[in-house]
Amino acid sequence: MSAPAAKVSKKELNSNHDGADETSEKEQQEAIEHIDEVQNEIDRLNEQASEEILKVEQKYNKLRQPFFQKRSELIAKIPNFWVTTFVNHPQVSALLGEEDEEALHYLTRVEVTEFEDIKSGYRIDFYFDENPYFENKVLSKEFHLNESGDPSSKSTEIKWKSGKDLTKRSSQTQNKASRKRQHEEPESFFTWFTDHSDAGADELGEVIKDDIWPNPLQYYLVGTALSRALHPQQLWEKVNFITELMLQMCL
Amino acid sequence: MSAPAAKVSKKELNSNHDGADETSEKEQQEAIEHIDEVQNEIDRLNEQASEEILKVEQKYNKLRQPFFQKRSELIAKIPNFWVTTFVNHPQVSALLGEEDEEALHYLTRVEVTEFEDIKSGYRIDFYFDENPYFENKVLSKEFHLNESGDPSSKSTEIKWKSGKDLTKRSSQTQNKASRKRQHEEPESFFTWFTDHSDAGADELGEVIKDDIWPNPLQYYLVGTALSRALHPQQLWEKVNFITELMLQMCL
């Protein structure tokens, strides 16, 4: 909410208001003191509102838990659910190299946990099957806000198998500092685990928490659903139209 | 909340999972249908949570109203409260030319109103005394989200007195389109009223609504409070120190 009001003490008002005299200055000083009192009431209401909203969020976080649990169990029955979901998501897919995608075929479970008081942060856990890339069974990244509101993040150190470190494959020649300055995307999905430069607004973390986690099925199904929404005849027409368009652009 | 789940229909899974046969494909299809059911439960809970949070916000908006009203009456007793507040606010002050500041000396009352359902938008009203710049008694700008979530804004047309249009004073030669492209600040506080290019994330609107309106007194007092926090002797030492520093820089 709002910052605490500055302490009000007697204030000499160098007003250029016509007819300002001792009396009106005293009145102004009193008005400021009253504003401060009213402001304290407003701040108190703001705090109460925040607490009530937090309680609502906590209540529903608990109510959602068994459904998330059930959903995870069902997702585990579908091979390649998560890699398909990530590939179908425009922002995540932009981070996926060919080998990232290979490695994500071993991703069996994703869990997003918001910490009890919600405002203090969240953690994302990625569960992997035995795979040729790294030893870890779980990779986690978590985001914290400390009491003064400063963000930080930490994550599992990835134990790469020999010669399999995907963060060292591409763009090795590119200077990391210059990449940061230009706000470019990390060059591998897995560099995200070692990048703690923007914990307060971690793009991938927030996409997973706020966009994918609330409804991953929509991204898993997106390709299928789109093509099925069209009648075969319509689909055929669309393909012809696009082919025509591409030909025109190339000529 | 999350987008509606894509309709689930039979899906041919071209799984490359070892041992995938007719039975496991049927199982996968069933799993997807169950995920969709679970997802509907999660979506239902999300909607309930949103509604409860909205009710809390509406309740506190009502509870705060009489205090905002009282605060406005008290502020009206203090000459130049709003212009001082705006000048002391770093982001707003960056928008203020010398003549904007002159005109804002006639600003007596600012009101921020969030619309009943909150999510749909807000309005800021600026009440002015009779002044040499424009005829209007009130200048308003309001921000709307329509039902599909698209933002728009509209505002009072300012009836400038002859030769007093502050939006036509500076940077006249600068091409407006190029200014837009470079995302520079408008050249006068008052151009903000005619700029509807970024209604979804109007910087000044949000600063006033979310930063100044919750506690304007802290900005009004900021200069005074800082100087009063120091004992006169400390203040004297600080002035000497800064004078010394400035002398060194100039020599």
Automatic annotation (TrEMBL), chains A, B:
UniProt keywords, alphabetically: Cytoplasm, Nucleus
Superkingdom of the source species: Eukaryota
Compartment(s) where it occurs, according to its Swiss-Prot or TrEMBL record: Cytoplasm; Nucleus
Composition-biased stretches (Basic and acidic residues): 9-31, 156-168
Principal subcellular localisation of the protein: cytoplasm
Annotated region described as Disordered, given as residue ranges: 1-31, 145-186
Any one GO CC term of the record: nucleus
Family matches, as Pfam families: NAP
Matching Gene3D superfamilies: 1.20.5.1500, Nucleosome assembly protein
Any one GO BP annotation for this protein: nucleosome assembly
Similarity comment text for this entry: Belongs to the nucleosome assembly protein (NAP) family.
Family matches, as PANTHER family: TESTIS-SPECIFIC Y-ENCODED PROTEIN
Protein name: SET protein
